[in-house]
């Protein structure tokens, strides 16, 4: 996800990506070249406007990757630190358990 967000940008955290590279192009490049490092290594062979734009920001991409990684870490840390108020905990556990019994995926923790 970090490589993907680095290529297309992360508007939530105001991290610019490669101009004219959206979700489809970012996913295609990562699938084709394996990672952001692979995309960077193949930048000279990538054609079109998106390829030109990629070559313009090659020096920026490692910084973008660090920013996206930091932003994701902060979001995950914040999500882990949030605990629901005591009156809601039993209701949330009940919903989680009901979802597990029905086979529905759940991300609620005890």
Helix content: 55-70%
* Sheet of most strands: none
Number of strands: 0
- Oligomer designation: single chain
Number of helices: 6
Report the span from N to C terminus: 26 Å
Uncertain regions: pLDDT < 50 for 5+ in a row? none
Mean pLDDT: 83
Radius of gyration: 19 Å
Task: Return the structural class.
Answer: mainly alpha
The outline comes out as: elongated
- The percentage of residues in β strands lies in under 5%
The helix/strand series, from N terminus to C terminus, equals: HHHHHH
Which terms would index this structure?
single chain; 110 residues; mainly alpha
Question: What report would you give on this structure?
Answer:
This protein is mainly α and 110 residues long. The protein is 65% helix and 0% strand. It has six helices and no strands. 15% of the residues are buried.
Could you give a quick summary of the protein structure above?
The chain has 110 residues and is mainly α. It has helices spanning 2-8, 23-33, 36-41, 48-56, 61-81, 86-102.
Q: What topology emerges from the helices and strands here?
A:
Elements: H1 2-8, H2 23-33, H3 36-41, H4 48-56, H5 61-81, H6 86-102
């Amino acid at each position: 996800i970090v490589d993907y967000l680095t290529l297309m940008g992360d508007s939530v955290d105001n991290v610019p990506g490669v101009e004219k590279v959206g979700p489809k192009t970012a996913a295609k490049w990562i699938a084709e070249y394996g990672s952001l490092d692979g995309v960077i290594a193949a930048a000279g062979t990538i054609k079109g406007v998106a390829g030109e734009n990629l070559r313009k920001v090659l020096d920026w991409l490692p910084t973008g990757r660090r920013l996206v990684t930091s932003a994701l870490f902060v979001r995950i840390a914040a999500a882990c630190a949030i605990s629901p108020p005591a009156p809601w905990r039993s209701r949330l556990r009940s919903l989680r358990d009901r979802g597990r019994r029905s086979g529905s995926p759940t991300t609620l923790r005890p």
